[in-house]
Amino acid sequence: MAIYLDCNASAPLEPAVQELMFRCFSENVGNAGSRTHEFGQQAKRAVQAAREQVASVVAANPDEVLFTSGATESNNIALLGLASHGEEVGRKHIVSTAIEHKAVLEPLEVLSTRGFEVTLVPPDADGLVPAKAVLMAIRPDTLAVSVMHVNNETGVIQPLAEIAEGMEGQLPYLHVDAAQSFGKVMDELRSPRIDLISASSHKVYGPIGVGALIARRRRHRRPPLEPLMRGGGQERGLRPGTLPTPLIAAFGLAAELAEKDYETRRQQCLTIRRQALAALEPLEIRLHGNQARVVPHVLNFSIDGLDSEAAMLSLKGLVAISNGSACTSTSYQPSHVLKAMGLSEGEVQGAMRFSWCHLTPDINWRTIRDAIAGLQ
């Protein structure tokens, strides 16, 4: 059976998280919104515990955690939810980057149709968006700045701390798509200057179908978000619908374990990275992204003259990898991230992404190397 090396798309379930989730499905039948009996109170306590666990990862208050279906929904609530406030106060400019996930870029396109002006700051050749360029793009009418923390394709950590520090005392809201960094890159997300953080459970070894939007207060005031849906009033009216208690409880435990085991997991991923680079070196791979700022569990590279589709076909049955974002892979298009970095057409077409985690079994990198070498 192929070894799964596409953890940036979706990571495997931590065993303890899976056990808790299944137990909740069988034992916790209550609705967290039911006030009149113990079953509802039990569900409510499980949800509250999860709020505390998720909040702890980013040093937020538990009541600043809103549960959603994942980072995509959180991004939509954060960006589209600010629109009415922007129209009301006459601030209709948004700063973001050219390497954002489609879950940010597409809501920004919707805002453009509503009369908002969007500035997309390009990355440098190493996939790093300069903090200075982001800060210089802010104007008096800027409503929000939206910057991903870790790029899903290259694994490059963006200069979030510098951006947050540079925005001190400024009005615009700072939103961070932390789908790839929540529980994996710890300190920067704890900055109180970050107003909105989007996270997904399934990127941090929890179940698919649940995530969070952390909406921090600024001077005791919550970000002025409007809901995208109506009905029920759950999650302070921002995300109506019955809370999926087993998924939320599992996400909470996944967040707690990510914080507790952070350094151990990081070292395990660094070991795998060293093994991969040593084995693949004879292929003269061309690494994409600033390697001094890349997370330890991602390799994005191309090989001269080799098409990624052919390589993935050759590796089928051996390893499962990708050549771009899972959210656009059903209708493959050349990576907008790598194109924004100025890579050649051949490099973009040949790029492959390997991503692993602490749960990844032993990998025979030499066999992978030999399979790829056979295509050259």
Per CATH, the class of the largest domain reads Alpha Beta
Taking the alpha carbons of the first and last residues, their distance comes to 25 Å
Question: Stretches where pLDDT falls below 50 for ≥5 residues?
Answer: none
Major β-sheet, in short?
Answer: 7 strands, mixed
The SSE string, one letter per element, is: EHHEHHEHEHEHEEEHHEEHEHHEH
Helicity range: 25-40%
Domain count: the total is 2
Mean pLDDT: 95
Stated plainly, the CATH topology of the largest domain is called Aspartate Aminotransferase, domain 2
Number of helices: 13
Instruction: Spell out the CATH superfamily of the largest domain.
Output: Type I PLP-dependent aspartate aminotransferase-like (Major domain)
Please tally the β strands and state the result: 12
User: What is the chains' assembly state?
Assistant: single chain
Reported CATH architecture of the largest domain: 3-Layer(aba) Sandwich
Secondary structure class reads: alpha/beta
As laid out across the biggest beta sheet, the strand order is 2-8-7-6-5-3-4
What's the alpha carbon Rg, rounded to whole Å?
21 Å
The shape is globular
Beta fraction? 5-15%
